[in-house]
Specification:
Residues 9-28 have a biased composition (Basic and acidic residues). InterPro entries: PC_trans, PC_Trfase_euk. It catalyses: a 1,2-diacyl-sn-glycero-3-phosphate + CTP + H(+) = a CDP-1,2-diacyl-sn-glycerol + diphosphate. This is Phosphatidate cytidylyltransferase. The chain is mainly α. Helix content is 68%, strand content 4%. The protein contains 18 helices and six strands. The strands form three sheets. Strands 1-2 form a two-stranded antiparallel sheet. A two-stranded antiparallel ribbon has the order 3-4. Strands 5-6 form a two-stranded antiparallel sheet. Helix 6 runs antiparallel to helix 8 (170-187), helix 6 (129-158) packs across helix 17 (413-420) and helix 9 (194-223) crosses helix 16 (386-408). The longest helix is centred in the N-terminal third of the chain and has 30 residues, at 129-158. The radius of gyration is 27 Å and the shape is flat.
Amino acid sequence: MSELRHRRGEGDGNDKVETAGESDHVDVDSEEEKVLEEKYVDELAKTLPQGTDKTPEILDSALSGLSSRWRNWVIRGIFTWLMIGAFCLLIYGGPLALMITVLCVQVKCFEEIINIGYAVYRVHGLPWFRSLSWYFLLTSNYFFYGENLIDYFGVVINRTDYLHFLVTYHRFISFSLYCVGFVWFVLSLVKRYYMRQFSLFAWTHVALLIVVTQSYLIIQNIFEGLIWFIVPVSMIICNDVMAYVFGFFFGKTPLIKLSPKKTWEGFIGGGFSTVIFGLVLSYLMSQYPYLVCPIEYSESLGRMTMDCEPSSLFRLQEYTPPHFLQPLMKLSGREKFNMYPFMIHSLALSIFSSVIGPFGGFFASGFKRAFKIKDFGDVIPGHGGIMDRFDCQFLMATFVNVYITSFIRTATPQKLLQQVYNLKPEQQLQLFYALKESLENRNILNMVP
């Protein structure tokens, strides 16, 4: 490995730079480097956890008579149902339980990604680097979670004197904390390991972009109403499970080289299953205000609340079917049908989760194949690490947030008031008189009893 490091410029500092006269040796050197690189990746793969091979001893002995294919099927099935059960319990626990879980998942995913970085760049012994990675995670969470708190609880926070400063200068404080980490990194640089340290610095920031940013968007989706979290997550789970089932029993045509076990049969079967599942789940969940109301802070109650009059998205409306479906409707004796408008949006979500969502998994597969590892971790038998289960969820969360912002979200008095309370007293008065004058000119105040 010292030879490989020497060629990379990570030796004792006396490495010679290749000149044009040495170009005839470049191909030979490239081949030698390729062989050394392959040996290095093989050694690396042995040091990283392989989750699908780790099962409880009791379960391992009970399934010893099965072939490896069916053994993996049973193990994956058992732990899939356990995870679905845990997910249902978290939903029952409410939004706070879900938010805490998202934070825990985020930390574990970051740990799995960053540990691969430590192994790749062999940073054992480098000063402060492990501490720096976790410091940047804390700083990023302070910024993003602080943004959420200000957006949704700005009114009550501004009325608390000792928190007003944190709200007003939140972004400046966040940037100052990041600058501390940046200076800390520069001061920790070691001449012999510049390349490794800068590579891991970039690795850390990519991990933050993938994990922390996405978890921030997931929290925002939860605040819009539990249905915007539960339905997309359930769609990804359904697509993952059904694609595996269809691929296991009917899969013959390879889908993508990055993931050789994925098949067109599984991809198509999982897609159709997800669309049907999404429509049924959306219809059932749209009936419960607890699931569809946004999470807001109630000043009168002094706590978070999800009590509201459901919006038009979650009220049954009458629709006329397209012309090509009208003959079928006439057979049933009806010309129109009732459905929740949210089901139309869920159709868009289900198509994304079944067509684009799997590419999050393909991306993760390519990443793992680059280092010849099966999984990011070994937390879940038959599945691997936490990141192995959430690779598609993060991409889906981003789409849902963009979708809500683009097509669903509208300004509400509660959110506007939170911004008004951040204004100076004279600005609030100016806004008050301007609004009063506008209402009087339109005779709206005169209509109020």
